[in-house]
Predict the structure of Putative FMN-dependent luciferase-like monooxygenase.
Amino acid sequence: MQFGIFSVGDVTPDPTTGRTPTEHERIKAMVAIARKAEEVGLDVFASGEHHNRPFVPSSPTTMLGHIAARTERLVLSTATTLITTNDPVKIAEDFAMLQHLADGRADLMLGRGNTGPVYPWFGKDIRDGIPLAVENYQLLHRLWREDVVDWEGRFRTPLQSFTSTPRPLDGVPPFVWHGSIRSPEIAEQAAYYGDGFFANNIFWPKEHFQRLIGLYRRRFEHYGHGTAEQAIVGLGGQVFMRANSQDAVREFRPYFDNAPVYGGGPSLEEFMAETPLTVGSPAQVIERTLRFRDHFGDYQRQLFLVDHAGLPLETVLEQIEILGEEVVPVLRREFAIGRPASVPDAPTHASLLAAKREKDTTEVAR
């Protein structure tokens, strides 16, 4: 399994001090968080994509390219790449470039986002969200696999004899996760292509995501990509930890109560009961995360949100240290116990390249 951090890049006031970081400070903090994730042995750093305040990551590939130059092992991903409002040609070229710069340590998660006004800002209609996601990915999928593409669709100008550049590294496109919190159509899309499905289960009860992941697994098998248990699943999570659970709750409560994404809704205790948010000791985080396998089956990628709601950078880096030193080593060991040999690891450039070479060799032998 892969374990890592994902950041939405919010610029939120610290309710305990009243101070709001500058955009520059927040951007630099995200870089520091990624480097810390590698330092403590995590596998993945993923950045969201937003084009509205209070968020800063409007150009994830720029940030991830910079992080690629300052890391050696970390897989660099997006937590959302807006397949609906970005031009699929630009996505194809930007992520192929990132893939080369990172020597293959790059993949991406496609999604529709959760900010309605972004659609008209980029000349799109939110009512076309699902059709845009379907059509744009059809084109993106071809651009990475065909050297010359002729294309005509509903939402963009036609292409004649077009080649996106650079071509994917080693002829292997970046691995794609389709992220969703509510749409069965996206689970279906991921299954159709044999791609990964990332259920960002940080806000809704587990039963909702059990239905989505179950649909994806069944349709993955239906389309002939493998058995349902071999489908590629990723999950989100939210944690805040201290050695003593009461200290964790006391420290995190003002952040929870005042953050725009939480404030005014359920209490912290209600939210923890209904979602994967775990505020407590490392042992409680381990226990809660291990239960994900009971709910969703064996899966390949676990990302944690730790840097939101105005938490200061120093505190976030402490959280990452706890994850790397106390939590993830136990999760790796426990998740490996009883994991069927048929369940694949998370795809990497190396594993995808090996599969491509094996396929090419088989075809030549025929």
